[in-house]
Amino acid sequence: FNTLHTLPITVACMAVATLTANAIFHLSGNAINVSIIYILAILLHARYTKCYSAGIIASLYSVFWVNYAYTYPYMTLNFTLSGYPLTFVGMTFISCFTSSICIISKQSVQIQEKDRMLMQAEKETMRANLLRAMSHDLRTPLTTIIGSSAAYLEQENEMSPEEKRKLIHNIEEDAQWLLNMVENLLSVTRIRVEDTHVNTSPEPLEEVVAEAVQRF
Hints:
By secondary structure, the protein is mainly α.
């Protein structure tokens, strides 16, 4: 599939190289300049494609066409010329080597992009889970505040000063808890910023457990 997908690019690249080589050959009559044109075409082809087989096809076409059209005797294949086997191997090696470097480079960029997207997705997932958990926890103090204030308004005349004080104390305590939750919620929103870091510190286990039991 990659070869078929890349084939139009290969044909276009070799066509441009052939037209350029014809013009240069008619001006200079030097087959070495023509070979340089095709080597450059192979390098550009490897740079902008990621298919080994298409690069090998381009190099084979270049070698055979340089031999056929630009090397004496013209319009005849002759691989017995001095140094030509080395040219064949060299152009093929350049194509394969450059293609491999370009493909590795592209794959490295793709892997880095995938890692970046994965880290971003994990960050968004963590942020969403924290927001979901904290939003759920916000209901508890709100329910207590609403319940305590409603009870105070409905039974104010029937309550003793101690009961009233206890209700007010509960409202104040839950309001403070709610304020801390909102501040934490605002802190979570800063996770989007790249230079934000989470600073952890040890906490006495008995205090954490005691507060959890009290809240429960």
